Amino acid sequence: xxxIQILKDRIIPIVLNQHGSTExxxxxxxxxxxxxxxxxxxxxxxxxxxxxxISSLQxxxxxxxxxxxxxxxxxxxxLLDSIQPAVSKxxxxxxxxxxxxxxxxxxxxxxxxxxxxxxxHYLQQHADTIKGALPVWATSILGGxxxxxxxxxxxxDSGVNSTPLSTPVTTSSHVAPTQVPPSHSNIPPREPEQKxxxxxxxxxxxILLAILVGLLLRYCNKKDEPVQADQVPASTxxxxxxxxxxxxxxxxxxxxxxxxxxxxxGNPSFTDIxxxxxxxxxxxxxxxxxxxxxxxxxxxxxxxxxxxxxxLLKGVPSTTLTWTGNxxxxxxxxxxxxxxxxxxxxxxxxxxxxxxxxxxxxNSAVNTSVSDAEKALASINPDQVKPIDIATALNLxxxxxxxxxxxxxxxxxxxxxxxxxxxxxxxNVQLTVKGHTDNTGDANANKELSRERAQAVVDYxxxxxxxPSKLSAVGLGQDEPIAENTTEEGKFKxxxxxxxxxxxxxxxxxxxxxxxxxxxx
Length: 521
What we know:
CATH superfamily of the largest domain: OmpA-like domain
Number of strands: 11
CATH class of the largest domain: Alpha Beta
Protein name: OmpA family protein
Radius of gyration: 33 Å
Mean pLDDT: 78
Low-confidence stretches: 150-197, 219-239, 513-517
Helix content: 40-55%
Region (Disordered): 160-195, 502-521
Keywords: Cell outer membrane, Membrane, Transmembrane, Transmembrane helix
Number of helices: 19
Distance between the termini: 72 Å
Strand content: 5-15%
Structural class: alpha/beta
Shape: elongated
Domain OmpA-like: 388-505
Number of domains: 3
Pfam families: OmpA
């Protein structure tokens, strides 16, 4: 199998999946596939001649056509006009943009190295294959990039007559027909060739006329066909309109190291680059939690700035960056430092709104909550214990589990010790411990983690003498938030334990969540 076919087989499915194209009409999918396939030999021709460009594209988080054509936007427009798939020009450009990064990745695999010169050398070895796949109309575009010599050879090898015809050239509707002057030669033409040329002109004219008539009749017939209710014009066939905005979030600890990172962007090539960047920059073995399914948009606005933003974040303590679509939220404990960071980021993402929020002091919040819970439990009369009072006091504390852990922090154990002593004095009571998480990560994994945390609280109370029959654990995961999950403070509030008290004699349930008590019969 030749190089072009290998790339078609590996690149086209990747790009189409990014755009949700596999669910579109087969004709649209075919047009998109053809557009990518047509672009590949042009891309390879440029890369083969410019190893430095390969390096530049590899370092970009989101390489684009503009990177190939630099200060020649007209050439880029000519390329898009020439490909002409049955989708909008803008969507065509997005398709081609998203084919660059995976092409570089596959070429690195095939060349055995991601080194630009190794890739360029590999392409040189396959120059004939690339040349044979190059469309004839691409010669002028490549010539505009200074690759005219290659383009000329490609045109010659494609069997194109290098001597222009004197017949007027048929063009698209927005370009005026032009008379191409005949070429001059010092060698007099032979008489037989003149006869052939005199016959060739009318024959070609008749063929072209027949084709035009056929196309016109076909267009008129299609124009009269009734449009079915379920038919969608090809130009409107785009990615899933209900796709969620692309999302990226990263938090640092007190020393500026990586604590958590999440990337939900429907572009596997881009998320792979992010993952490598985060692991390398923060020296972190895990990096980010990744979801590159097409339920998320394929791009963050101005996402080329992400690499520079990551470098700014490294070493900044106790800071969270949340990037959703065209908005970035920065949260940090030091307001002045957070604002200074925001000002630097604004220069990197001109089309993104950057805002700052005062970060929550987790340690202070936990210490205060534990103190309040201890005071509330101490105020309960041991001889007149009400289960709802125990649940209310327990709920005052914040049990700040470590990420992914169900180990109860030592600071909370004194509160649970007091609660256990009081619960042993209360008959006819069932206490349900409910675990909750924020929406970071997989929903099913969150539900299981919340159950494990709730069970850890139950197990600790049992270890302190509470009758196991009075206790049960439930994990609700991220399903019942009490705050927005769009900020770190909101997520902190959603990671919580709630208590539901049931009187086994009356069947009355009282749920305590925050400062709210809900009663059910």
